[in-house]
UniProtKB/TrEMBL annotation:
The keyword Methyltransferase does not apply. Its EC number is 2.3.1.-. It comes from bioreactor metagenome. This is UDP-3-O-acylglucosamine N-acyltransferase. The keyword Lipid metabolism applies. One of its GO terms (cellular component) is membrane. InterPro entries: LpxD, Trimer_LpxA-like_sf.
Length: 93
């Protein structure tokens, strides 16, 4: 665990985890074994699976931030849908 890292609540951190500088873990969460949390990442929910996690989201007023955060999780699927629609239009056009 690097410097300037904040761990709140009764968070349980698994074995062989790396938590980079200025990362924040907020709440009573569980972090699985073999998790790498990147610098400045804000963890607000438990991490049940090993892996490399990164999450820095732009500062905004809370109402806009919540809407954008919810939409961001769907962004890749929306991108794939748009690509498929564009291909359909191209083929039908």
């Amino acid at each position: 665990m690097a410097g300037c890292t904040a761990v709140a609540g009764s968070t349980k951190i698994g074995a062989h985890c790396m938590i980079a500088g200025a990362a924040s873990i907020i709440g009573h969460l569980q972090i699985a074994d073999n998790v790498h949390i990147s610098t400045n990442t804000v963890v607000m929910r438990s991490i049940p699976h090993a892996g490399h996690y990164t999450g820095v989201f732009p500062f905004d007023d809370n109402a806009n931030w919540e809407k954008n955060a919810a939409t961001l999780r769907q962004l890749y699927k929306l991108r794939e849908r748009v690509k498929a629609l564009e291909q359909t239009i191209k083929n039908d056009g």
